[in-house]
Amino acid sequence: MAELSKFQAFLQCKCPRCRKGDIFTGNAYSFTLQKTNVHCPHCNLKFEREPGFFYVAMFVSYAMNVAEIITIGVASYILGLDLVYDNLWYYVGLILSGVLLLSPINYRYSRVILLHYLTPGLHYVPGSGD
């Protein structure tokens, strides 16, 4: 199996150290509960580096939500929804729908961004877990 690049491992939600083990159980959009593994199934890296580590992911998720809200608002304006008071509830409905639809993605990728890009000292180690 070919080694994944950092970006491929990020997109596929793989462990930042071995790039082989899954960070999450299940899919983002499934009827089973989405859960973060405690340890990497391949190299046994503990994902929660310290108590409360994933609280920082809330800030990353917040930034992602703000970007999504702005994108949905601007896109709906560009696609023809006039920016007048009568259309306020259309904007609110579109933005809330978009945020709800993207919340599983935000949950996953806020944690993956935290592990891959914002954790000092956590780097790829070729051959770890073999």
Question: Gist?
Answer:
The protein has helices at 6-11, 56-78, 88-117, and strands at 24-25, 35-36. The chain is mostly helical and 130 residues long.
- Total number of β-strand segments? 2
Mean pLDDT: 91
Shape designation: elongated
Using the CA coordinates, give the radius of gyration. 18 Å
> Which class of secondary structure composition applies to the elements?
mainly alpha
N-to-C order of helices and strands: HEEHH
Distance between the amino and carboxyl termini:
13 Å
Residues in β-strands, percent: under 5%
Low-pLDDT segments, ≥5 res:
none
Strand order of the largest sheet: 1-2
Could you say how many structural domains there are in total? 1
Q: Summarize the biggest pleated sheet.
A: 2 strands, antiparallel
Helix percentage: 40-55%
Tally of helical runs: 3
